[in-house]
Amino acid sequence: MIIKQFWLYVIIGLTIISCQKEATLVKSSLDYVQSEKTKLAPVTLTHDISYLPNQEIQVIKLLVKASRIIDRIFLIQVYEKNLDILNTLEQSDCPHSEEYVELFKIMFGPWNRIDDNRPFIGKVKKPDGANYYPMDMGKNEFTAWVKKHPEEKESFESNFTMIRQRDNILTAIPYSEFFKNEIQQVVSYLRQAAELTSDLSLSTYLKSRADGLLNNDYYQSDKDWMDLAGDIEVVIGPYEVYEDNLFGYKAAFESFICVVDHEESKKLEQIANYLIRLEEALPIDETYERGTSSPIKVVNLLYSAGDTKAGIQTSAFNLPNDERVRNEKGSKKVMLKNVMRAKFDQCWIPIVEKALSPETLDDVSFDAYFTHVVMHEVSHGLGPGNIELNGVQTTVNRELKELYPTIEEAKADVLGMYNTQLLIDWDVFPEELEETLYASNLGGMFRSIRFGIDSAHGGGVAIQLNTYLDAGACTVDQEGRFTVDVRKMKTAVKNLARDLLIIQANGDYEAAEALIDQYRIIRPETQAVINRLKDVPIDIRPVYPIENEI
Q: Which of 204, 205, 212 is nearest to 238 (CA)?
């Protein structure tokens, strides 16, 4: 036990050798840990699934078991020492260690994701490349290796490989090999669920996804996921590249287990009929059609795991990210309604009450918030994806590298507003939505920017907010509260949408870097609002009752 305690002290940055001394020396750190947890409001996320046949309920439980293993894979992806740190903390009998365990599990590592990745255990700075690359490897070493070994470029830049160094030789290891033990467990649960379910579309997806996990090729299963048609909506595997801040190449494992709200989904079906028209109406000369299918599903979340559960919770998602699938079949937008309602009640309303002027506050609504989230996800699937530069086929993601997540999130936000206004103008959405759209969007920015401007969403919002301030689209009154000017905001939204789309169309890393350097900052008037929000939760912390049933 003395050895375990000693390593606990090393981990939390102390040079003491007894739990009694720990209680004295870590009090301020403990206060920090406890205060950070209060920024995430505990919310029980569930939904009545008693109407489902018992065999489908058992399918859901098998998928939750698979998702628990996804948590472990993502922990490894974040930091090579994560499992050792967690094991040491969980086995310690020192006072307060459970507080560190809880925050560690929320953040998937020793860095606070809602405080610009400040370490709350130890003093090590979070590696830009997470655990996808050797910790001491920089950009130059990677690019030099690829330049010297062009035959390895595809595997090194693949979304689904881990880069390792052996005897001064860099090598790309497929996820299927690197996480072989964990993946075999996930595959076992997926195949059991595939055999049990009576939903043919779900069975097809689970089988092909199991195959994809084993062969490191997700193309077919991504297409099968687009065709899910039953009551259960599930996505499981590596998707978003936001954890890779070195190049933005490597995909993090995640999982969503949901049940579909068919009635609410049907209400949004009409949006899919306007995708081609929206693409043609983008404020950029060229169009970039990426598939005409764009199902929108409203679901209630039962369980999430991995990347999507780390720190700030996802409200909606737009997948797959494979440009081949998007070109062939489009993409699917999934709205997590119970998550969105919880965020609105617990965080959004208390924030806008402190951030907006009275006249702007009167013009906010859940419908406008929900609609913008829907259109944000729709807009992820519009604009440049595959591009050609100097006669070479490439992707926006590959060219913008680690800057891509921030630019893409800003684009989706801004185009979400631009496209919502178009649908209002085309009488698809009700005219009265315009009365609440811009005020609701402005208020919501202060929720996202609190995530930290180093996050893709927070950084993207900082770009928007500062651009709109410079354009006079929003102003600050004598009490430091923000007011929206709808007429100027419409113009500012269109102009920023055009600028972001041009950056993506040109794969212009330098222009993206310049935009981020200029606008991804917290200005004094914004910081003043953030200071007023210190007692308001930043986000929710889900509790999933279904986990206790397994």
A: 212
How many residues comprise the chain?
550
Q: Which residues of 494-521 are buried (b: 16+ CB within 10 A; e: fewer)?
A: bebbbbbbbbbbbbbbebbbebbeebbe
Q: Where are the beta strands (DSSP E) in 281-400?
A: 296-306, 316-319, 332-336, 386-389, 392-395
CA distance 206 to 190: 6
Strand partners, 387: 394
Q: Which residues pair with 474 in a beta bridge?
A: 484
> pLDDT tens digit string along 314-346?
998 989 999 899 889 988 989 999 999 999 999
Domain 180-549 CATH assignment equals 3.30.540.30? yes
Looking at residue 428, the DSSP 8-state letter turns out to be: S
Asked whether the bond before 320 is cis by omega within 30 degrees of 0, the reply is yes
pTM, two decimal places:
0.80
What DSSP element (H or E) covers 25?
A: helix 19-25
Closest by CA to 504, choosing from 404, 392, 413, 355, is 404
**In this structure, what token pair is assigned to residue 383?**
């604009």
Integer Cα distance of 200 and 195 in angstroms: 10
Structural domain boundaries in the chain? 1-37+80-124, 180-549
**Which region, left, alpha or beta, applies to residue 380 given φ > 0 means left and ψ of -120 to 50 means alpha?**
alpha
Cα of first residue to Cα of last residue in the chain, in angstroms, is: 31
Handedness of CA 200, 203, 209, 214 (dihedral sign): negative
DSSP 8-state assignment for residue 356:
B
